[in-house]
Structures
1.
Amino acid sequence: MEQFIVSARKYRPQTFKDVVGQQTITNTLINAIENNHLAQALLFTGPRGVGKTTCARILARKINQVGYDDPTEDFAFNVFELDAASNNSVDDIRNLIDQVRIPPQTGIYKVYIIDEVHMLSSAAFNAFLKTLEEPPKHAIFILATTEKHKIIPTILSRCQIFDFKRITVNDAKEHLKEVAVSQNITFEEDALQIIAQKADGAMRDALSIFDRVVSFCGNHLTRQAVAENLNVLDYDYYLKVTDLIITNDIPNLLLAFDDILAKGFDAHHFVSGLASHFRNLLVCQNPQTLNLLEVSDENKNLFYVQSQKLSQSQLIEAIDLSNNCELKYKTSMNQRLLVELCLMQLATITHPEKKNLNLN
């Protein structure tokens, strides 16, 4: 049986053009290489799974390809990767400094990629300072970290810093489309939308989740199957709950919440999603903010139709009630009652006799 390669590895970008959602950084690096303005100490910082190590590897290969005859050469012997999470002692850094003095046998540069650099000990950082400030001409250091604030200022001041951003839901979804097409997998737009939202800005997480749902769904990804596998409440639930809120139907609203709990969903997650749903309704009322709506183009009309049933002030009040419930949830002694009270208060927002009610 052929060994399975996870998508995060199989589709790891090999050129800067393939990197998802970091065009500003990749363009800067390409221009720096072409104009010979590349610093010898770079710091890549940002959330997990957004392309820091990938860009470091592409950069290491690209700077050595200048003027080289064989475009397939990966210069593996010129690239040294150190995981600072497990090699964080001063001795590890001293060994690295000893290697730096030796020039490369092929290519132009030796590139040292130090991942999770914030894990280095204080002694290791201090041992590294002089070499980082004045490295040999053939050496380039690329430091990568998810926690820039843990790196001492004397290291930061010696590096050119690149801040990687979270991958947008739309960018992640478009990349997942390409992956799905390459694997002959059919899909519903909303299925990929759910995966992209679940990944929370990390492309690596999105690809890992994609592999998981493909194992569950087979060669056709549906919104319902993906939502079930990832145990997420999709927009259908929130549209139905909001319809009950608009019609002030408290009994069926409480039954709907009970059904959500019976299906194993977390009440805290439900309240958080409800606040996001009201926010989506608010942004789709105005054409200027419509692009902030985090749903697929196919379903924007569903949100638009529902948003017209509520005024802007009612939606703001609904967001405020949901958000307050979410904030109080962890400290509440009776969490179910707290959410039910929130739902009952929400159901009074559109009540014709709201002025005479004293439930808020």
2.
Amino acid sequence: MPATVVVGTQWGDEGKGKLTDLLAREMHMVVRYQGGHNAGHRIVVNGEAFALQLVPSGILYDHITPMIGNGVVVDPAVLLAELDSLISKGVDTSRMVVSGNAHLIMPYHQELDRVTERFLGKNALGTTKRGIGPAYADKATRVGLRVQDLFDPKIFRQKLDVVLKEKNAILAKVYNRLPLSAEDIANRYLNEYAPRIEPMVGDTVGLIHDALDAGRSVLLEGAQATFLDLDHGTYPFVTSSNPVAGGACTGSGLGPRDIDRVIGIAKAYVTRVGAGPFPTEQDNDTGNLLVERGHEFGTNTGRRRRCGWFDAVMLRQAVRLNSLTEVALTKLDVLDTFETVKVCVAYEADGVRYTHLPYHQSTFHNVTPIYEELPGWRTDLTSATAPADVPEAARNYVTFLSEQIGVPVRLVGVGPGREQFVSFATA
């Protein structure tokens, strides 16, 4: 049975965790395929909020095998703390599986992330300073430590000594920081983290393929989003991995033919955290109202999100990059109080109209959005459970978005709760 991918289509925070949790009831396995604990997924179940960072959203179902794939970078302290928090809330975490090929986030990654951002000053990228980028950089330069290295102390110490010699030299000579102790790091990772993590480690590639061969359903969960993708996002204001659907293959060990459904998650408006271009941003009362009504603050960092109108140009690009089969639209209820709502249908730059993303960053950074304005609905949507409960103006807005991006909108979110989705298929 082919797998399903859930991918963000904007700049993150679209509600991937909630949708993954909703879809998980029909799945047997949920796999995180990239990113680290810089991605926060917030799920509300029976009024209780669960803020997940590394653990796949399917953990809240007893029948699901939650899995961290090889494409993820793992901070052991964060993973264990998150599992302990779930256990304290009565969640069974015994089914958790972690790839031995996933790379470890080390203390020097976090230190380098912090000092580099300070060094960049006004050119800072707005990272979460959690070591994600440096960990992926070490993976690319083949000096990273992997989860499986925790269970061979000799190899772990040898690799650590080699890489830490270089990192300490950089920290001391470039950033005037004190050196980190290899002995302290080894003791913590080998004696504190390794014994607790070892029972979770498995052959995730084999387990995923065995599940598909047995006719079981597998859901691949991405972190961040399309326009934070290292290759296809608004570089350099991007993450350090590939959240696009293609990244689900490399980050899990599946091939393209193992996937037949790719669900893109989009907010009914757009948000962004940190620096970078944002054509439809509303740095005004409209943006402030979106922040207030949408509670637009980072799940992990608490940072205020930048807000703007829906950008159909971006979504058309996301459809192409991910081969989206459908879209789930979240937070439609946030727009309930607006008399009119705007949708960016094209860009203009130097007299040229763009209906797809211009390839050159200098053009994209200076585009002017071209809007179409639609009537608002001025009706509370949070109790809607069927399309008939949704006002005509809101249905028209959803239909208009679907027509603009060229794929059907199958689900519409009308509130933060697990069940606050309406099946809203569009042609």
3.
Amino acid sequence: MITTSGLTKVYRSRGREVTALDGVDLHVREGEVYGVIGQSGAGKSSLIRCVNLLERPTAGTVTVAGQDLTALAGRGPRAGRELRQARSRIGMVFQHFNLLSSRTVQDNVELPLEILGTSGKERSRRALELLDLVGLADKAKAYPAQLSGGQKQRVGIARALAGDPKVLLSDEATSALDPETTRSILQLLRDLNRQLGLTVLLITHEMDVVKSICDSAALMEKGRIVESGTVSELLATPGSELAAALFPVSGDASGDDRTVVDVTFHGDAATQPVISQLARTYNIDISILGAAMDTVGGKQVGRMRIELPGRYEENVVPIGFLREKGLQIDVLGQEPALVKAGAK
């Protein structure tokens, strides 16, 4: 549904150049919720604004629903009209709501339809339908100043859906909200994704957002995507930065007389007493240095850092036992070639 290829954005100011996007390749499948996560300055906002060409890319292409939007940019009046039509099929939700204070809630939702030239009767019908969908049917005549932050964001979502888009872009839509309101907005986005078949691309700096609703995710650093995939794939990838960030565990990994292992549980293995089985089978003392458990996609997932007595070479068999149980194993402080050889 969304593809970027070699996407580059360079900002020029006072003789200086700042590269916000550096050859970004992104692939978002139809009907999924895709999260892009990274620290401030990683390029997340530039990416999402380039997807609907609110920012014109310096280089590269953006394709949405099979249409190359970058081919329409700056190509004359007809192409400009086509670009506006393409944009109308892409909804956008902003961090700070961007509602017009002088308009009622219903009028704010009707605004995109008004711009598209939709009749007044149809605008009213569609706006009331959308407000009911986001749980604000009783607020149609209220003004933004009378709403809570969560209610304002629901209005923003309803407005983004006015043009019946196939794609919804969310630019830090929950970062200005309290935790409870954040959960309700994320649940609303997931419900809309399922009910309407919406493809949702959201950017965030909060790992909890990815854990709550994302099917796939990408990690951005310094204008590049350094890691991407479905959440389940990432959890099963050795050394995944995103998996480690989703389920952070602590504990000293140094020492020549012990082996420290990060164990990722997902699928059926998450409900099995694997660690106690390991201790009984090999009659070894296992220290648990840290653990993090949560629910992702309705399934329990977690990561545990454990310590086994003795060097890595002495623990090849117990580690093999864990792998046979379907667990993802990362041995800390070992060279990859040594770990791979030991796994064999």
